[in-house]
Amino acid sequence: MNLDTPIPTSVPVLVAGGGPVGLATAVELRHHGVRCLVVEPRASVSWLRPRAKTTSARTMELLRRWGLAETLRSRAPLPVSWSQEAVFVTNLLGREITRIGACFGLDLAGSDLAAEPGQQAPQPLVEEVLREAVGDALLTGWQVSGLSEDADGVTVRVAPAGGGEEREIRAEYVVGCDGPRSVSRAAIGARYEGRQDERPNFNIVFRAPGLAERIPHGPAVHYWVLDPAQPGIVGRLDLKETWWCIAQGVRAENADPVRLLRTLAGADIDVEILATDPWTARMLLADRYASERVFLAGDAAHQNPPFGGHGFNTGVGDAVNIGWKLAAVLKGWAPARLLATYESERRPIAADTIEAAALNMATGAPELADPSLMGDAAEFEKVRPAVAEAVLRTKDSEFHSLELVLGYAYVNSPIVFPGAGERLPHRWLAPGASLYDHLGPGFTLLGDQNSSEAAVVTAEARALGVPLHVADLPDEPLTLVRPDQHVACRGSVPAGALRHSLAHDL
Ligand SMILES: Cc1cc2nc3c(=O)[nH]c(=O)nc-3n(C[C@H](O)[C@H](O)[C@H](O)COP(=O)(O)OP(=O)(O)OC[C@H]3O[C@@H](n4cnc5c(N)ncnc54)[C@H](O)[C@@H]3O)c2cc1C
């Protein structure tokens, strides 16, 4: 813990919490040249609590925008080409029932749909890459103990994580990324609304030398075990000997992790338990996301079941949305009322994500498990088609959710033009050269720059002091692209488009 680190008395933006979403917020602010301080109690990332494994194609695109996609990929223990499949089996060493390919957008390399395919990477690795990018703006060993807001700013009380004397930091704005038990959420009087699943879940991280070589189903990012004696999901954390497992319906106090893993395997495999982590799935959405100067992001604002891999990925979308808007206000190219559009744009996305993830959870390994699968070969073959059909029918949306991951749009936002708000449709201009690589950190005007409409937009940008990058791509329809790669308007860009997109007219 860096308790001796000098703590600033004031900072433009204080980010409470340095999980993936707080760190992403800081990286986004840095992308726009805004100084911030991330206050995080954990001295280092939690390697034995690798909750998220799926970094979505959209998050990878945003990492590319920050220059971090290759860093994450090069350090990810499971290369994206290693496997893109989920295999459904009776036991790890048992029979195969069916398989689903092209999971989690892992197959998108070279596709026009996205600038980056998804990537399997343990959450602590993602956090480590982001921590390095945040650099000395990360203050570890400290936590936010409270905050109070007034017309000019926010006074944030911070204290050493292990207890000790409080200090005060004055911030113009606070982004509360302090997770499920958010102090920031309580401070602004916001409340979670929703429900939690009754079924307990039990994660195990374990070493199993030689297990991979014994599994007859080939590489897979997920092995779904449909043995009614112990259904669950198992995957590799690396290509050495480390694995993860989610056992549903298991209470920590009753769990015998070694026996549980051997039942999943269907054999007395050698295992060494490295860590266990009980958790409950929650479908929760904060009733509001913001006060005047404090904004909630990530799990502090919403929680969804992990099935489909959306939790932190949705939070990274929050981080980018609030990050560029805070930069616009702090740099003086937008009025403070732009910040109110953070909640109106992001809260509906979280609501849709919670609904989709809850649907994914409704049919899990316990529901798909069938005692007849465990019978002799004839019994198995008799029941296999029906179980395989149920898997493909109910699990497709969990593994193929590009509509949600890439397709969300801010359609009802007051700052986008009718029919716009979607993520800029991606295409490759040449092998390896993404259309997105032509976007600037601020707004971008794509298309034929010789048009009179283009001249009006560039003049407006100069007048408002808005950073506008122009990308002279005559084959593209004239498009005003926001800093978050979403379309403000497309086809025709009317006079006043930037004013509208930055809430000057609201
Ligand atoms: C089994 C499982 C699998 C999952 N798989 C995926 C997946 O594949 N893909 C995906 O996108 N998501 C997944 N998730 C969800 C993902 O783990 C969370 O959504 C993610 O951690 C949320 O990030 P966050 O930064 O918002 O919150 P957190 O990760 O909870 O981080 C909050 C941070 O705030 C800090 N903090 C707490 N209190 C304070 C305070 N008072 N002051 C300052 N700091 C504070 C904490 O130390 C922590 O670092 C999974 C979750 C589970 C349980």
Automatic annotation (TrEMBL):
Listed InterPro entries: FAD-bd, FAD/NAD-bd_sf, RIFMO-like
Pfam families noted in UniProt: FAD_binding_3, Rng_hyd_C
The entry's keywords: FAD, Flavoprotein
GO molecular function: FAD binding; oxidoreductase activity, acting on paired donors, with incorporation or reduction of molecular oxygen, NAD(P)H as one donor, and incorporation of one atom of oxygen
Cofactor dependence: FAD
Domain called FAD-binding: residue spans: 11-356
SUPFAM superfamilies listed in its UniProt record: FAD/NAD(P)-binding domain
Protein name per its UniProtKB record: FAD-binding domain-containing protein
Record organism: Nonomuraea terrae
